[in-house]
Write a structure and sequence with these properties.
With 334 residues, chain A is of the alpha+beta class. In chain A, 25% of the residues lie in helices and 23% in strands. In chain A, helix 1 packs across helix 4 and helix 4 crosses helix 6.
Chain lengths: 334, 334
């Protein structure tokens, strides 16, 4: 059973998951995951037996669960960071705090074919994937043990991908992650002082400033944030205030999938298929809708190296001004 | 001039330093910095002309500044993240905040020979380096524009080193880094509640628990923290409460250099010269001594990859229990 321990100074949690050390680095030392052959890929159509049984899928009418003819499959992670069974058993050890590593760790296999860049997915597949994300978040939030669900994607080995076939992951945790809590605290302070959502104000300013804008539609906007940590970092936000991704209605979901595909194509073309991560920041599963918090997707290209200064300070050094990155991203025909 | 921008949500600062993009990656694509030849190394004795003029040095009596016969040289970083000249000129841009990228960025060249692993430095050289760190921090804190000085070391390319020759860096910033602020806030809450320094309590518990202890001397203690983010992460703390590193007296400085050398040798032997960072967390330069904060050195081996989950949540996944890492580190004869 993994164990969760809390740093008493900063309140951040660490998952001690010793099983994961034995996780096969499928690509071998120094071999990029991209080089994996499709016939060995556990995520390709026809290889369904190589994954744990599916939890959810978008598949052809009448096709058999765990057989072929699917578009999106959701399966438990074979080497989960947290375990779905058991109780938290919170307790202290002197001044320290720990609990059992209870949580969910699901993998969304996005597309039956061996595509390794998300930008290569068709618009309808991106929409199917987004619908699956929404569905699984709706389901997992009903489990009272979980306080939060973080949906993320690792693209490329440098960004932490251990398998190249397009996939996302959802980890449900028994505590709200410290970074999301910091965002919520900051946004709450702004709301208490100004009486408005900070993110809504950002959206307004970005649309009127224009210079950091990547794309603006009726329902969503994408821009390079003013204080982007990474070169070409891009955020996607709904224009209308909403704290929880999983509350998205169908029309908005389609608009979201469209702008997401477009932004990823811009990024992959502008930087030549860089390694990157996407992280969805949405409201916690404890408590209801929030006036002061606004869900958003963060896309961070991993083309710089965080060194001692960044790890020690929380400062970031970004060599590319957001306004210049936005020009380059706007230029691309997605 | 670099620019500092603040993320309005979390309060973290980003340094936009466009000059640094042109910094030569001396080792070339895919080539480890270790492979650089000593005769090309700007940090080796005899090549003093290849660095900016020295700010401070520990050198043979009577030897000429910027000439050979030194043990430690401190020079401005040739590609500084922040610039020493100018005023901050803080101002808003709509809801955002920015200021000029004013600060200091100094490099400590540790040893005249082309040694690439800190554990290879002699005890007396480690002490000379620590004395130089203390001296430069004492000097820079007198500059009223600076709120903090972060001393750090990058070892190995994966850890962000762009030159292999042993060196540390000190970046003085006009704001207290968000990670140090979070540590101070957490420690202050503990102090307000318990009336004691949290770090002093940790030291006591680690000494009595023993299982995470790496080394304990009369003046310093080294252990793997209970909630270590990284495998084999090691912290070094003074046993007696002290908030500011640069206030260290000579006898303590010698004990610090000794335990530091010993811990680095343990780490390098146990993991076979891993890439790693060291970061010194000490009290800010604004205000005086703090009852609730305790300076310490954090050593983080960079043998795991932070992926979307870690970047998006602030959770860490560590495959090695601190108690097991400590056993391995204790085994090594340093």
């Amino acid at each position: 059973m993994p164990e969760l321990r809390k740093d008493p100074i900063t309140g951040r949690w660490v998952i001690f998951s010793t099983d994961r050390a034995s996780r096969p680095q499928s690509m071998g030392e120094g071999k990029a995951p991209e080089s994996q052959r499709a016939e060995d890929c556990p995520f390709c159509e026809g290889n369904e037996g190589k994954t744990p049984p599916e939890i959810y899928s978008v598949r052809e009418w009448g096709s058999a669960t765990n057989g072929p003819k699917w578009r999106v499959r959701v399966v438990p992670n074979k080497y989960p960071a947290l375990r779905i069974e058991g109780e938290l058993e919170k307790r202290g050890e002197g001044i320290y705090d720990r609990m059992n590593g209870v949580g969910a760790h699901e993998v969304f296999i996005e597309g039956p074919r061996h595509l390794t860049t998300p930008a290569g997915l068709s618009p309808s597949l991106l929409l199917d994937a987004a619908a699956a994300h929404r569905e699984r978040m709706r389901d997992l939030r009903r489990d009272r043990r979980f306080a939060y669900g973080l949906l993320f994607k690792n693209v490329g080995r440098t960004a932490g991908a251990s398998l190249p076939h397009n996939h996302s992951q959802l980890i449900a945790t028994p505590v709200v992650p410290v970074l999301v809590q910091h965002e919520m605290d900051g946004a709450k302070r702004f709301f208490d002082y100004r009486g408005r959502c900070l993110f809504c104000d950002m959206v307004q300013q970005e649309i009127s400033d224009k210079e950091r804008l990547v794309e603006a539609g009726d329902r969503f906007v994408a821009f390079v944030p003013y204080a982007a940590r990474f070169p070409y970092e891009t955020w996607i936000l709904p224009r209308r205030h909403a704290s929880h991704f999983e509350e998205l209605e169908d029309e908005d979901l389609a608009a979201y999938a469209a702008i997401l595909g477009s932004c990823l194509r811009r990024l992959e073309k502008a930087l030549g298929n860089p390694p990157y991560n996407t992280m969805l920041h949405s409201g916690p599963w404890v408590g209801g809708a929030l006036e002061s918090y606004h869900w958003h997707l963060e896309v961070i290209p991993r083309v710089t190296t965080a060194a001692g200064f960044e790890w020690g300070s929380g400062f970031y050094i970004n060599p590319v001004l957001p306004e210049l990155a936005a020009v380059e991203l706007r230029k691309v025909v997605p």
